Each structure stands twice: as structure tokens, then as C-alpha cells.
Amino acid sequence: MKALSQLLSAIPVIEVIGSDDKQITDVVSDSRRVTTGSLFVAVRGTQVDGHTFIPLLQYSGVAAIVCEELPEFLETSITYIRVANSAVALGHLASEWYDNPSRQLKLVGVTGTNGKTTTATLIYEMARLMGYKAGLLSTVCNYIDTEAVPTSQTTPDPLTINALLRRMVDNGCLYASMEVSSHAAHQHRIAGLHFTGGIFTNLTRDHLDYHKTVEAYLQAKKSFFDDLPSTAFALTNADDKTGQVMLQNTLAKKYTYSLRTQADFVGRVIESRLDGTSMSFNGREVEVLFTGRFNAYNLTAVYAASVLIGWPVEQVLVAMSRLVPVAGRFQAFHSPKGFTAIVDYAHTPDAVVNVLQAIREVVGTRGSIITVVGAGGNRDKGKRPIMAKEAALRSDRLILTSDNPRNEEPADIIRDMEEGLDIEGRKKTLSIADRREAIRTAAAIAQPGDVILIAGKGHEDYQEIKGVKHHFDDREVVKEFLL
């Protein structure tokens, strides 16, 4: 338990109605979790406004309610705390409730359209290779040192984040890294966290179903850097046109990384293969087990962050050579028939381009590229024809299929994608709504030396159809058809 007065010291309050001399048993933002002694924070969400539940909690035993607007009827046994923004307040209250665990860790946040998962995961792996206990919050899985904790969101809610960070601290972790999604930044899910550093990977079209415009999407990403403290580092991709925009208003120490120009941290690709790449970081050559320029960017960011965290350069370089790819990110499977299948999470036009360019750099004209790709339902429809167009331009054969159709019909999504194809693109394209059949077809037509790219789902082990998640793992299906 904690004193209400102590919790309120962590947030700016407009007014308090009632006594703050109370003991709080827990902090919740879900009205269904309220019990006797709870502090309920009424947050305005994208689907539900927590304020609508306040009248229902009057006799629930709730001790206090944080809100932006007071209800008409005030129950005398409840303390009401009015604030300007409940979502921001929740972040700070969650941190205070769990004794500010982010201040007891060196926490690095990673934001951007592509590369968040890989970069955040590899920083976590670097810490462990350096001999430290570490934690990770990511799309694929959360980790408390070696303990895997399943995840359902790229960036969880503030209470979940702080509960996990608290467990990391209690388990002896000194370092942590986390993905910071645009949704999380916009919804203030990271409010109250103390970051040692922030990393920007890149920005391309994504999540416009939520943000509506690219500018709003950019500003959501930028807000993460705007809120970094002066003690933190802000590391940005100098080769991305929005890289410097991210740093315009930050108080953090500014650093850049690049593959193409002068920067504080420079990566260079010397030779690329399907099983790895020869790279250099600030002139020091290293063999890494990753392929493609997009991974070279991720690795350069990881190298830079590792140095900025304070790890010795020589040890960092050795550890870089020992890093392994993240599940579902350019994960290669080799068939005894002589072709290779690559499963990748690429689900934006830019990500598809990056992966296909990486494959073409290695394959050249010695083999064909067969791409299997779909688009998610109930998401940004504008990117569908763009994805199909970019995939067709860089593939010898293209198979359009289902991804997570959600509440849309797969055939409708595929038709949207087909709109991006010209006459030449249509000649090389098959449309197969059944994803398993699409992968089987790709394997059936592949010849020795060819590469199949299965894009869009990566690590996901399900397909979401009409609100139901059905087990489906691209990696399992690939293995089934490789023999």
C-alpha cells in the first residue's frame, strides 16, 4: 500500500476534493479491476472513455478517482483528483506506485517505422553478452533477464510497463531496452519513464488508419525525443530525411549514425551474403550474422547505443559478432532442393523494399525471387497497392495472399493490392487467398538458387480472422513444404 498523498506528489493536480490522507491498495485504469482501496484513473482511450464508468464506481469501495472532468454527483467517501490529462497522470502514478523502476535501470527506447524490434532486442542481447542481467519490452516477447513473458502489444500500458520494469530491477537487471510505438507515444503510455537514451530508426508510411496523416505520425515519434531529459542521449539515423527533425526540440545529447555520410557512428557494408555480412563500425571490421542494408542500419544503431551506454569498444565489437537475428526477421530456411525461403515481418512498403533489395544484392541474376505477401485488414488501405507495386518491381514472381484479414474479406484486400500492379506486374502475379496454399505454391515453383520471401507476419504464430486468432506460423508452414 501507499499513501494517496505520496502518489499525488508525482503528478500536477488542478484540484483535490476530499482527503488525501488515505492508504491506496492498488492503482488501476480498468474499472473492472477496482477493489476496496483502489485509486482509479479515468483515461480517455481510443475506444472507451474511462470517465463514463465513474458513476458506476461510486459504491465499489474505490478510495480515489483521478479524472479530467468531475462527475455530477460526488460521493463523500471518495477523493476526487482533477488533472489536465489523465493518461499522463497514469504514467507518473504507475511509476510512483512501483517505486520508479526506470530510474534504477539504464533504459533505452527505440522508435521508428521499421527496425524497432531488432534494434531493441539486440541491445538487450548485447547487455547479456557483456555479462549483465537485462530486460526487454518488445513486439515479439518481453524478457526479465532469461524469463520470457508473453506480450500482446508493442508497448504495453503504463501499469504493465512499470510492473515489468519493477520485476527486472528486483531480479538484478541493470539494463533494459524497449520498443516505443507511435501509438504508445501519442497515448502517453511512456509518461513518467526515465530513459537513459532514445534511438530513431526511420520513418515511412504506416499506421495512418490511426494517425490519419504522415505529419501526425511523425509528431508522435518526435514527442518521445521532446520528452527525453538532458542526461539522456538521443541517437538518430542521419540517412533518414526525418532523422534531424526528431532532434529539433530534445534536451538530450544529440548523436547520429549513418551508412552513407559523415556521422558520429558510421557503419559500412563490405560484403553481403545470405548467411551474414562483413561490416565495419567507425573503421573497425566485424563479421555479423545478418543480411541486408536495413540490418546494417539496425546494427550500426546497436553499436552506437552500446558505446553511448558506456561499454568498452573492444568488448562491443566482439559481442557484435556473436549477435544472432531476431525470430521472424530475415529468418532463412534452406531446402535440400537448393532454394532458400526467408520469413520476415516486413509489412510496410518500405520494409518490403528493404528486404527485397537485400535479397537481390546477394542473389543477383543467379536466381529468381518469389515473393509471398499480403496486407492486414482494418488497417491503412492506402499502403496496399503501394506494397504490391514495390514487391512486383523487385520480384520475378509475386503471390498476393492473406495476412491478418481481421474483419475484412481477404479477396477484397487482395483486390486493393492488385490496383497497384501495371500490365507487367500482373503478368508475374498470382492471387491465392489461402496463405498456406500460397506458400506451398511458391515452394513448388522454386528452382535451385531461387529465394522465396514470405513477408508480413514474421514471428506471429496466428492469423486473425473475424475476431478469432487461428494458429498459423509461416516458419512452420515453410518447413513443411521445403522438403
Automatic annotation (TrEMBL):
Annotated gene: murE
Function per UniProt: Catalyzes the addition of meso-diaminopimelic acid to the nucleotide precursor UDP-N-acetylmuramoyl-L-alanyl-D-glutamate (UMAG) in the biosynthesis of bacterial cell-wall peptidoglycan.
Catalytic activity as recorded in UniProt: UDP-N-acetyl-alpha-D-muramoyl-L-alanyl-D-glutamate + meso-2,6-diaminopimelate + ATP = UDP-N-acetyl-alpha-D-muramoyl-L-alanyl-gamma-D-glutamyl-meso-2,6-diaminopimelate + ADP + phosphate + H(+)
Ranges for domain Mur ligase central: 110-305
Gene Ontology MF terms in the entry: ATP binding; magnesium ion binding; UDP-N-acetylmuramoylalanyl-D-glutamate-2,6-diaminopimelate ligase activity
Positions that bind ATP: G112, T113, N114, G115, K116, T117, T118
Pathway where it operates: Cell wall biogenesis; peptidoglycan biosynthesis
Subcellular location: Cytoplasm
Annotated family: Belongs to the MurCDEF family. MurE subfamily.
UniProt: meso-2,6-diaminopimelate binding residues: R379, D403, N404, P405, R406, G456, E460
Modified residues (N6-carboxylysine): K221
Coiled-coil zones: none
Cofactor (UniProt): Mg(2+)
Gene3D superfamilies: Mur ligase, C-terminal domain, Mur-like, catalytic domain, MurE/MurF, N-terminal domain
Protein name as it appears in the record: UDP-N-acetylmuramoyl-L-alanyl-D-glutamate--2,6-diaminopimelate ligase
Entry annotated with the keyword Cell wall biogenesis/degradation: yes
Naturally occurring in which organism (per UniProt): Muribaculum intestinale
Keywords associated with the record: ATP-binding, Cell cycle, Cell division, Cell shape, Cell wall biogenesis/degradation, Cytoplasm, Ligase, Magnesium, Nucleotide-binding, Peptidoglycan synthesis
Binding site for UDP-N-acetyl-alpha-D-muramoyl-L-alanyl-D-glutamate: S31, Q153, T154, T155, S181, Q187, R189
Pfam families documented for this protein: Mur_ligase (PF01225), Mur_ligase_C (PF02875), Mur_ligase_M (PF08245)
EC number(s) recorded for this UniProt protein: 6.3.2.13
The Mur ligase C-terminal domain, residue ranges: 328-458
